[in-house]
Amino acid sequence: MNKILPQIMKILTYQENKEDESFVLEENPTEKKAWQDSRAGGEKDNKSGADEEKKGDIAEASAGREAGEKKRTGRRRIRKTSPRGEKKAAVPGKMAQNDGLITNDLESNRKIIETLYGLPVNKDVVVREFELGTVPGIKAMLVFMDGLVDKAIINHLLQSLMLFSGVGRPGGRIADFVKENLLPGNQVQEVEHFKDVLKGVNSGDSAFFFEGSDRSLVVETKGIEHRAVDKPNTEQTVRGPQEGFGEILRVNTALIRKHARSGELTTEMFTVGERLPNDVAIMYLRDLANADLVKEVKRRIKSIKIDFMMDSGMLEGMIEDSPYNLNPQTIATERPDRVAAFLAEGKVAILVNGSPQVLVVPCTMYSQLHTGEESYLRWQYGTFTRYVRLLAFYISFLLPGVYLSIVLFHQEMIPTELLLAIAGNRERVPFPSVVELLLLEFSFELVREAGVRIPGVIGTTIGIVGALILGQASVQANIVSPILVVLVAVTGLSSFAVPNFALAFTLRIYRFFYIILGALMGFFGITIGLFVQILFTTNLKSFGVPYLSPSGPRTQLGYDVVYRLPLFLHEKRPDYDNPQDVRRAPRISRGWVKRGGGNNGRSD
Amino acid sequence: MKTVKLVFALAVIIFLSGCWGSQETDQTALVLAMGFDKGKNENVRVTFQIANPKVIAGAAGGGGGGGGDQEKPYLFTTMDAPLPVAAFHLLNVVRSRDISLLHNKIFIFSEEAAREGLARYMQPLNRFRETRGTAFVFVCRGTARDFMERDKLELEVSPAKHYEIVASLTRLHGLGPTAHFTDFYESTKTHSKEPVVPLVGINEKGLGAPAKSQVDSLGDYLAGDLPASGVTAQFLGTAVFSGDKMVGELTGDESRYLLMLKGEMQQSFMVIDDPKRPGHVIGLTLRQARRPVIKTSASGEAPVIDVELFQEPSLVGVPSGINYEDLKLKKVLEKEIARLITEKCQELVSRSQDEFRIDSFGFGQYAKRKYLTVGEWDKYNWHDKYPDAQVNIKVNVKIRRTGLQLKTVKPTM
User: Fold this and answer.
1) b vs e for B384-404, b when ≥16 Cβ sit within 10 Å of the residue's Cβ?
2) How many contiguous H segments (helices) and E segments (strands) does chain A have?
């Protein structure tokens, strides 16, 4: 009996064929030798332009070759242990000869730089040679990336080095002397590895090399063109700050710091991405955020091995606890004030350079139903909007399913007149209710998707097409009944009223499950669906915090979860974040209220 | 593996439960009202009033090409069958759709059928899954089929809504009870109260029907006898049942006192003779101040029942011009109203004891409380004891409101 279930499973499920090799083009020994020869040759005359392309091919080929060597371990392992990520992809070649250290010789440094950047084929990098204005003059070289730097600053730096440096040169190291006396840059870093030089230059800094010095000075000269700080596009509010994050990491950290002015606010930087490294920053309040939480966030980010990291959405996919669960497990927000408020609760913010969305962890489902605006509104209005949103939350995934189960299974539950109205409008519709509903839902999803993708110039078309086709023509053509149009419209509106884009997306997908369950099994099916969904959701954790807290595992509820009571009652920080200091405000937070006056409004 | 198991379990649930219980609205015919008459050969003659949703939703009018006649929002089908549920199943032979009783809100029994006993109609319906327990029950003078076909819905489109509203209007006029199917069925079975059902009928004579005298006869009619314009349905009076058999009829006025004693009268209009100037009438709106206090001593041969009623009338019309707003005169009026209500209630109680010999008021339910077990109560045999019971009625009347007028001033001549 015990054997039967596994046997059935074996029949029903997909079994990986371990014998079968996926296609790997193996090299024979002669090919291998030819490849090695070509690699050596390529390094010799690296200036020939064709080699630049070849280099990319080489990396690919080497990945393939090593994969081929590991072929016995099966296909899946090959994919996972692909060595591409482990290679020092950015600094290959000659640098390996002397551990990538900067040499004393300016000319050889120049050669290395040319090799590293593929000069002169690569036109972005500018190498400027000049002589310091000291007595005697020193040969020097400036390397920077055209377009990433602020040209005015570069000119100013050159001016100071070449013209305003007419002083005698004392002994000691040149780099130190220049750094201390000649170079008026505000952030100057002395480095000895080419690796660091490249890192700086690639992000818009300028590197100075000097004859006879094995150090390079990397000066901050960033001047990348970027979008100005603008209104948040996806999280608009009526009340409260109207600034949103941009694409530049440093601007974003500054925006947060603008709202959270504290020495305890700490920003730590990481580099993620092997081939195209990108900066990732985490921000937290040192004296508030739980140390273990910070450690865990750092551990997860540091361990990521990925080709490139373009957006915080990619990072989210790499650090979330349960990638296979539908629910979003981090809060992505565009608004600095909201991030600052989260930091003040003891949460950790994660910023990715180039991404206007900042991730906040840990998150709960309740915080995804908040916008932050409720705190700026008076508490009655805030509470009201939250209840509206709560209703929208349920409607957005349950309404179509419930409609189907009532119409198909539980007709006695609705008023006779309503049923007659539904029935009468459906008389001429040729489809079963499920098909009708799915048709309309699908068209609505189409309008939604098309609305996002459509070029702005013809954007108004979507409204006309959507409204006319969905709203009117389909009813007149007796394809759908008018009541259903109303229903789908209400569902759509509700899904837009859910403030978190990711959560709204989740609910959109859940909705289709409930449509199927409702059509097949009525309320019984909906109940099963709800039960399973609750199990999945309760089981979820975001950085160790249960997803449904403070109600999932019931902890201290506080005054700011479903409803929002007056601000002076928010005396404690969320218990589930486990901050170092739970108390947010003293028991009497409005000092001007006379004691015993009875209008403090508190119940305890 | 875990996911596979889960998917497997879900698939099992879906495939084993299936969607066979589902019913598309365009494959269902909704019965809104059912009428029961005696049929030929001891059969039951059942009339179904079936909704035509096309018309009710207003979808029919424009598009239909050709159909010249005005379609009605409902259709009738009548058939003879041994049982009501059998008729329901036979209906599938006649009508194109799956018949559903889920929204059947009205059961109308003809007086003839009711006098023979309703058990054979009610019992199968009570067992049937689709019957709505909250459906309204009416007894109709004449045949049910005739009544349903001649009852013109002028304000309503759907008959279900029409009957529902009519049945609930008793809270405004108090001239007839309401009866729900389950309540009615239960009270045909218990010993402690007997069912009462609203009476309906068609007014055949229009305004030509004989009118009663002016004083104290506001609703002294049975359904169908009230002089009113047009051949219309009237919902007035009460059919009194003993078990499942109808034994008598109460007029509208008597129904008011019945409801008063049952504590179910919410509002009723009443006309009395002016105590100070006989020959003139006074119009009152009665309201129940609180539920009646009923005390019983049901141990001896003749049970004693003390009923205390609390009424708060307000003055509506005083054509005699006497200043009844005056505190002293108000007392006089209150006393007169109390006397009249006591007298009428006594009359009704003695009618129930002597003529019908049943307890339609539910006094038995109060008496039952004195017994610890149902066995003892059954042994006491309330049904036989009630006709000998001594019923004392006390009526408290307090006029709280005199309408919008605080004082009646005598006209200066």
Assistant:
1) ebbbebebebebebebeebee
2) 21, 12
Q: Say if residue A336 is preceded by a cis peptide, omega within 30 of 0.
A: no
Annotated domain spans of chain B: 27-54+71-261, 266-412
- The confidence band for B348, taking pLDDT boundaries of 50, 70 and 90, is very high
**Residue recorded with tokens 């610890």:** B372
pLDDT of residue A71: 45
Instruction: Decide: helix, strand or coil at residue A257.
Output: helix
Q: Closest by alpha carbon to B353, among B380, B322, B332, B384? A: B384
User: How far is it, in rounded angstroms, from Cα B314 to Cα B284?
Assistant: 6
Residue of B nearest to A415 (CA): B103
Bridge pairing between strands B28-38 and B98-100: parallel
What is the pLDDT at residue A407? 92
From the list A408, A429, A528, the residue facing B22 with the nearest CB is: A408
pLDDT at A132 over 90: no
CA distance A65 to chain B (A): 34
Q: Which two tokens stand for residue B122?
A: 């009610």
Q: According to the model, what pLDDT value does residue A23 have?
A: 63
Q: Which residues pair with B362 in a beta bridge?
A: none
Cβ-defined contact of A9 to B23 (cutoff 8 Å): no
Question: Per the structure block, which two tokens stand in for A519?
Answer: 């059509």
d(CA A55, CA A60): 9
Measured between beta carbons, which residues in chain B are less than 8 angstroms from residue A13?
A: 4
Chain A residue with CA closest to B74: the answer is: A420
Q: Which two tokens stand for residue A204?
A: 């818009």
Question: Hey, is the C-beta of A426 within 8 angstroms of any chain B C-beta?
Answer: yes
Tokens of A136: 């005697």
Distance of CA A600 to the CA centre of its chain: 43
Per-residue pLDDT band for A22 (boundaries 50, 70, 90) equals: low
Q: Which long-range contacts (CB under 8 A, 24 or more apart) does A55-63 make?
A: A55/A92, A55/A118, A59/A84, A59/A87, A59/A89, A61/A35, A62/A87
CATH class, B266-412 region: alpha beta
What is the nearest CA distance from B29 to chain A, expressed in angstroms?
10
Tokens (6 digits) for A400 = 């179509």
Nearest CA in chain B to A516: B14
DSSP labels, A528-579: HHHHHHHHHHHT-EETTEETTTTTTTT----SBSSSB--GGG--B--GGG--
Cβ of residue A533 closer than 8 Å to a chain B Cβ: no
Cβ density class B114-151: b for 16+ within 10 Å, e for less: bbebbebbbbbbeeeebbbeebbbbbbbbbbbbbbeeb
Cα torsion angle, A589, A592, A595, A596, sign:
negative
How confident is the model at residue A1, as a pLDDT? 57
Who contacts A212 (Cβ-Cβ below 8 Å, separation ≥6)? A104, A106, A138, A174
- Distance from the Cα of B160 to chain A's closest Cα (Å) equals 8
pLDDT value for A94? 45
Interchain CB distance below 8 Å, A417 and B132: no
Distance from CA of B77 to the nearest CA of A (A): 19
Give the start-to-end residue ranges of the domains of chain A.
26-86, 93-219, 249-363, 386-546
- Give the best residue of B3, B16, B22, B97 to mutate against chain A (max A CB count within 10 A): B22
For the cut 60, the answer to whether the pLDDT of residue B352 exceeds it is yes
- In our burial notation (b when 16+ CB lie closer than 10 A, e otherwise), range B199-234 reads bbbbbeeeeeeeebeeeeebbbbbbbbbeeeeeebb
On the 0-12 / 13-18 / 19+ scale of CB atoms within 10 A, A420 is buried
One-letter amino acid at B380 equals Y
